[in-house]
Design a protein that fits this description.
Layout: H1 2-7, H2 12-21, H3 37-49, E1 55-59, H4 67-82, E2 86-90, H5 94-97, E3 102-107, E4 110-116, H6 118-137, E5 142-143, H7 155-164, E6 168-172, E7 203-207, H8 209-232, H9 238-251, H10 254-263, H11 288-293
Parallel strand pairs: 1-2
Antiparallel strand pairs: 3-4, 5-7, 6-7
Helix pairs in contact: 2-3, 3-4, 6-7, 6-8, 8-9
Length: 296
């Protein structure tokens, strides 16, 4: 049994506490064959916690796990990292690798490439902010599980990081159900394909004042790029216009943005008639359920 296994190396109470930290206290009297793959992986993490290590070596920690157990294990590793521990993880999964601060790629035992992920994270944060803005313009509240945003990080983890940076805040969804109207965010294609998200999400995401300012700048760059491509370069492919505008919104400096705006005669609306900075999360045509959730 797990408790007896841990007892051979440490105090039983410490073993129970370690199992509790990984959500397996109720499985303490089960043998390994009675555990799922995800539970066995979490037992390995609990075993590592017993000695309070400064460095955790994780060899394919999410191998052969389903999406639910993968996220549980990754959240545990991230929690260990937040506590000041160094995580050295070996993985062949590029999505899992993106959760690290730094990637070192080995080819035949030699370092072939290195990458720091901070810049890529910032681009995904911009995508989340843009999605929140678009939801507000369309009178929809942002529910975490219903958000579909391009990027390597799972949206839930990206939102966690953005919350720590003061760009967004979260709150539980109110118990009252409400309708969800479909809308298309041109840059992200759609919030979710039909039939993927059913019902309400459990968490509502809102822009903070800091996040709203950054989102307004992103929207301005994107919509100025759209006007530049259509008004001055006569591009007529919707797909090409959106793809290029999505690239420009991440690379235009404030100076370049202002010059493009002046070149275009300081337009007030995008090519679809939307104002550059009219997005709101808490104020635009909210449903009764949203109003209940967004009260101060």
């Amino acid at each position: 049994m797990l408790a007896q296994y841990f007892h051979s190396m440490t105090d039983e109470q410490e073993a129970i506490e370690a199992l509790q930290r990984v959500g397996l206290k109720d499985r303490a009297h089960h043998v390994p064959s009675q555990l799922s793959g995800g539970e066995q992986q979490r037992v390995c993490i609990a075993r590592a916690l017993i000695n309070d290590p400064k460095i955790v070596l994780a060899d394919e920690p999410t191998g052969n796990l389903d999406a639910v157990n993968e996220e549980i294990v990754l959240r545990l590793l991230r929690e260990l990292h937040r506590q000041g521990r160094t995580i050295v993880m070996v993985t062949h999964d590029p999505v899992v690798a993106r959760l690290a601060d730094r990637r070192i790629e080995l080819h035949h035992g030699k370092i072939a490439a290195q990458e720091v992920f901070a810049m890529a994270d910032e681009e995904q944060f911009d995508e989340v902010l843009e999605e929140l803005w678009a939801l507000g313009e369309n009178g929809e509240i942002a529910e975490l599980e219903r958000m579909e945003v391009h990027g390597a990080l799972p949206v839930s983890i990206a939102v966690e990081k953005m919350t720590a940076l003061g760009l967004v805040s979260t709150m539980p969804h109110p118990p009252e159900p409400h309708n969800h109207k479909p809308f298309v965010n041109p840059c992200h294609d759609a919030l979710k394909p039909d039939g993927v998200s059913i019902g309400d999400g459990s968490v509502i995401v809102e822009l903070t004042e800091r996040g709203r300012k950054r989102a307004a700048d992103i929207i301005r760059r994107h919509r100025l790029a759209e006007r530049l491509f259509t008004d001055s370069l006569a591009m007529d492919s919707e797909t090409e216009i959106e793809q290029q505008a999505c690239k420009f919104e991440h690379i235009l400096s404030p100076e370049a943005t202002d010059k493009i705006c002046a070149f275009l005669g300081h337009p007030r609306t995008c090519r679809m008639g939307r104002r550059f900075q009219e997005g709101r999360v808490a104020e635009v045509h909210q449903t009764p359920a949203a109003n209940a959730a967004l009260k101060p």
